[in-house]
Amino acid sequence: MSQAPNFTEVDPGLRVLMGPGPSDVSPKVLRAMAAPCIGHLDPYFLTKMDETQTMLRYLFETEHALTMPISGTGSAGMETCLVNLIEPGDKVMVCVNGVFGARMADIVERLGGELIRLDFPWGRAVAPETVLKKAKKAGPDLICVVHAETSTGAVSSLSDLSQAAGEVGALFVVDCVTSLGGMPVGIDANKVDAAYSGTQKCLSCPPGLSPVTLSSRALDKLNRRKQKVVSWYLDLTMLGSYWGAERKYHHTAPINMIFALHQALRDICTEGLETRFERHRLHHKALVAAMEGMGLSMVVPENERLPMLNTVYIPQGADDLGVRKALLNQYGIEIGGGLGDLAGKVWRVGLMGSSANRRNLTLFITALKSILE
Ligand code: PLP
Asked: Which intervals hold domain Aminotransferase class V (predicted)?
C-alpha cells in the first residue's frame, strides 16, 4: 500500500470578499453550518425546511407554494427551471447581455428547445421594446432574462419585460442569482413564472444551494409535459414531493447547508428587506463616488447600474492581475476580473449582502489608491 498523504488542515485565513461572489459570510451562518448533522426526515429538520421556505417566499416577494432551495449552486437553479419547463421543440427566447444569458441559451439548446437568442450590448440593460417586437413575431413559449448580469453590472427592468412576456402569453423566467436579497425582485408583482438564485451573493451564505420559485402557471406546464423531465436529480415533480406535505424521499438533503441558509435568511428577516436594499444602494453610491473621484470610469450608464456589482474600467497603465494580486496579498481583499468580452478590461467590485459595509468600502478604496499610486 502506498503511504497515506499528509496535508495541512484547512485554514485559509480571513478575506474581505468584494468580488462577484461569494460574499462575506457571518460567523453566525458558519456556526449554523457546524450544527450537529441530523437526518433528512428528522422532525427538527422538517420544521427548519418549512421555515426556510417561508423565509424564501418573503425574500422572493411571492406566495408561490413551490419555493425551495435546490441542492447545487446557481447554475443548478438555472438548469432546474429550464429542464422542467422546456420540452423539445418549445420556442424559447433568451435575452443575452452577458455571460449568464449565454449560459441559459446553451442549456436551452441542450434541451432541444428552439432557441430564439436576442443579443444586447454587454454593459447595458435588455431593451424591453426589442423583446416585445421580436416576441410578437416569434411567439415564444418562454422568455428568459437575467435580472442582474453579474458579468457586466447591468440591471434589466423586470416590470417592462414581464409586460412583454404577458402580451405574447409566454412564461417569464428570471435569473435572480445576484439580485435576490440586494434589490427588489417582486416575483408576484412582476408576474415571474420561474426564478432561481444562489446563496453566495446577496444572501451571504456559502455557495451550494439555489433557491427557486415557480408559479402555478409554470407548474401547469410542468404537469402537462408529454415527456419525463430529462434530469432525474432536478425533476421538480419529485423534489416537490419531498419539500411538500408528502415528505417523500428523493435525495439526501444537504442538511447543514440548509441550516446555514436558514440562519442567513433569519439575518435578512431581522434586517428587513427595505433596510437591506437601502444599505446596498447607499454603499454603491459611496463606492461609485470614490472610484470616480480617483478618475476611474464606470462601465454601465448610471440608470442601469446594479447596486451590488460595480464594474469599472481598468485605468490605463494599470496591470489587471498585478493590482488584484496586490489587493489580495497585501489587504486580503478579493475583487473580480472581467469575464468574456470584458476580460482584461474591467474590474468587478462586489458589495453583496454582508460585504456591503463601511469598513469594507473604506478599506478597498484606501487599498486601491495606495496600489495605483
Ligand atoms: N447567474 C448569474 C447572474 C450569476 O452571477 C451566476 C454566478 O456568478 C450564475 C448564474 C451561476 O451561479 P453558480 O456559479 O453559483 O453556479
From this structure: 40-338
